[in-house]
Amino acid sequence: MATISDTRLEQVIDRFEEVEARMGAATEPSEIIALSKEHAELKPVVDKARELIAARKGLVEAESLVSSGDKEMAELAEMEIEDLREKLPGLEQEMQILLLPKDVDDTADIVLELRAGTGGDEAALFAGDLFRMYARYAQLMGWKVDVVDASPGDAGGYKEIVANISGDGVFGHMKWESGVHRVQRVPATETQGRIHTSAATVAVLPAPENIEIDIRPEDIRIDTMRSSGAGGQHVNTTDSAVRILHLPTNIMVTSSEKSQHVNREKAMEQLKIRLYEKQRAEADAERAETRASQIGSGDRSQKVRTYNYPENRVTDHRIGLTLYSLDRIISGDKLQDVIEALITEDQARKLAAMDAVA
């Protein structure tokens, strides 16, 4: 592993101190927000940089004491040298990880889309299980979940459900979930006890702040319709749901709250996000060779994970990870174990790529 120079570490610290100074003088709300965000992102990096610099300095000082002629001090210094030499490689690796290039959207909120795939009613039930898993995980992470649109399955679950999830670093964690999720279990309606295989697709779209997408009025068609969600008599008698079709791309979005005004706003926001994701995907396609070396391309045709109920097993096929705790993972309580493994593997590959270049 390449050693990070003291100059690089000092650059990070200098930038952090500059941001702190500007925060004290800033008066514009937008600048204060931007500086506060950068300050929060830099803080753990700077803390680790200062710890690494202090350890390096301590090693140099301890080595100088060994040859000082003071036998007692030399013995203490040798113990210190042993401890620091054992500690430094770990600090170097932690610092390398913190300095890795990050996805520009890692801190963004997301739009989560789940759709039942092959498997009929069982696929819809599985999509419902996945949504509850993500909702519970979001709760544990302190994120907010807002369902935008849902189409219930005939036997339960969802044929399709779309939700906004907002909070700290949502996309950076949830981006690994995009793809085809497969379930193997005995459906409740199965009388012969046979295991069925069904699937659901998960799409995670980043919703960065201040999306600049130009949507011309002549490029969209807006329709109103009756909401299919819960809501009693009001929903049954009012054409409140809004559907927007973007004619140039054929992208369609729907929002079905009680208020038509709110639905129009939400649907437009969803359309901007979908168009942003289309732009992002097109840019990613141009870097396909680079993306091929990374985990989770987000391609929905990619089978990313299998949930085997008879064996209580979850397997993530991208990194060959198998955990026998399906019950805790599908409940959302242990999903973090899978996500952390994916993040760690991605970091290891990026570090290996940096070392190869160096």
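That was protein one. Protein two is written in the same sequence-then-structure order:
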Amino acid sequence: MFNRRSGPTSKRLVTIYATGLSQRFDEVVGEEPLEIHISQGGYVSPFSVTMRTPGNDFELTTGLLYSEGFINNRKDIAELRYSCNGPEGQDYNVMIAHLREVRRELENSKRATFMSSACGVCGKSSLSDLLNLGDKIEADYCVDPLFLLSLVDVMRSEQRYFNATGGVHAAGVFDLTGRKLVVREDVGRHNAVDKAVGYLLLNDVLSKASVMVVSGRAGFEILQKALVAQIAVVASVSAPTSLAIDLATEMGITLVGFLRDGSFNIYSHPSRISTK
């Protein structure tokens, strides 16, 4: 059923018009499961199954392990590899993460559950898990509104899967000069963020991350990942949720919503956005 594709897949469809119909092929976004296992001391334990767009799987695994508190940096990972013992035809849908030291008890994480591409916290089973986050962000830099608006165009220009299918989300991370550090796409909003953060970790540039722009709704799980990564400004082209606003307010994140068409809303810590 599954075959690894890092790009869009061509599917036949029928389009209905007022004057009739036509048949053609169209590009649709790929979605397949990624089963992640954690290995330490010779033992391999299941961690998570997440639906994702194939591609950048090492980054996705790294970012997810980081946001969940299993690693602090890339040196905590001894090896990432695809399993050669997975179900037939699914070798590239099973990932083994060999960790030098597990910094959080796997059996207590409650993350070894199925996650859909629409859910970033489905594996959490208690509020204490949700609130086990990072340190409050104290960054005191300030960004210009026009600078912030320009980042949407930069991210949009990098969304080649979205251009082909219209069916994926994106996360872009930038430094204070506006330099693009990474843009990643995925069928899941939270996966796009994990891929972006995973890239920054694997390339030792997470400390330069200052602004994150996301294409979809700014929900709690997006803010949680930004907090762990200590990214002080999170901007969404769509709406935030009430819990995301509460988390941003409490933990020192400047949260921007509806970043499009030359304007945006600031929901928390507006002092990081210049008003001069």
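The first strand starts at residue 9 and ends at 17. Keep this in mind for the problem set.
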